[in-house]
Amino acid sequence: MNESLHESTHFMKMLTDFMPGMVGYWTKELRSTFANREYLSWLGKSKEEITGIAIRELLGDELFRKHEPYIRAALAGESQAFDYTLMLPNDETRETLVHYIPHRDGNEVLGLFVLILDIAERKNLEQAMISAAEKRQRLIGQELHDNLGQQIAAIAYQAQALERKIIASGSEGAAEIAAAIAAQAQNAVVQCKHLARGLLPLELESSSLADVLQAFAKRIALTYEIDCSFVCTGETVIDDDNLALNLYRIAQEASHNAIDHGGAQHLTISLETGKGEAGKGMFRLSICDDGCGLAGRDTKREAIPGLGIKIMQYRANQIGATLKLIPRAERGTEVLVERQAL
Predict the structure, then answer these.
(1) Among the four residues 62, 75, 160, 260, which has the most C-beta atoms within 10 Å?
(2) Alpha helix locations (H) across the chain?
(3) How many Å apart are CA 112 and CA 25, to the nearest integer?
């Protein structure tokens, strides 16, 4: 019996050592009882050194504080998964997906399993997909602004010229038709400019993200004739172009989803940034709507159900943030993107 148990333990140790990731186990008192070879290598510890060590002592206060909310949630019985940039002992970084999985015995949580996987390839694919989507949006925006918009403007000008000629000839009925064509063409030019501005957020190159989101909210309210407001709090200015662009695109996607699929009539976009040195790198972007919510949306009309949500998730991952879709008690959904202080 003891020999069989020994062989089983040896096999499990060998199995986890050859897994392409880090595997560990922590008791509910947050003390280590197991770490596979990859985990020991990252920690720079031997099996003897890590057995029984407290997680706070191992990670240090700063790193423990960043992981503590996930750890506490896992010990409360909720599995956790989040992206994390891991710092290796040789000062190299690795993009990882961290899992904290509760170890249950009935209703009691005895500890938690830790599984950390390398997701560098996935990150690269996500970045490539987002870059391709961004390039396509810019090309469409450029085409709307430089080509289609100009052609429609020319039609409006010609219709106005035709209206003047018809008036001069005394045909008032035909003049009214020409005037209507000119007015519709001018309205189409305005719509083209709005669309191009959304696809080409050039304001980000010269204005702050808060200013661009404020202008976006006004544009949404004007275009869709709904109530759309923007609120900004905090002291930190987001001056990272990639971060600003991804947050803008998330706000854009969430807003259009709420209107097109949720039938929202009221939208609130809010941006909160950190205060002082302690809040450096922190942000919280929220888009609240009063639409029918996720459960009430007609996913059959979408070519790929949830594609917009997936793109928002990819963008959040790229900037080290978490994205949550939260049903609102009164009605609608809140799309929440947040990142803790660096």
Answers:
(1) 75
(2) 2-17, 37-43, 47-50, 55-59, 61-75, 120-143, 149-169, 172-199, 209-224, 241-260, 307-318
(3) 6
Give the mean model confidence (pLDDT) for residues 312-316. 86
Residue 258, CA distances (Å) to 152, 213, 244, 310 in order: 30, 16, 21, 15
Strands 333-339 and 283-289: antiparallel
What's the whole-number mean pLDDT along residues 159-165? 82
Alpha-carbon gap, residue 342 to 127, rounded angstroms: 21
Cα four-point dihedral sign 299, 82, 230, 204: negative
- Alpha carbon separation from 100 to 73, 249, 316 (Å, rounded): 9, 30, 20
Question: How many CB atoms are located within 10 Å of the residue 255 CB?
Answer: 25
Overall pTM surpassing 0.90 (yes/no): no
Per-residue pLDDT for 177 more than 50?
yes
Listing DSSP states for 113-137 in one string gives EEEEEE-HHHHHHHHHHHHHHHHHH
With 0-12 / 13-18 / 19 or more C-beta atoms within 10 angstroms meaning exposed / middle / buried, residue 304 is: exposed
For 224, left (φ over 0), alpha (ψ -120 to 50), or beta?
alpha
Amino acid sitting at position 256: H
Measured distance CA(111)–CA(35) in Å, rounded:
14
Q: How many CA atoms lie within 13 A of 284 on its CB side?
A: 14
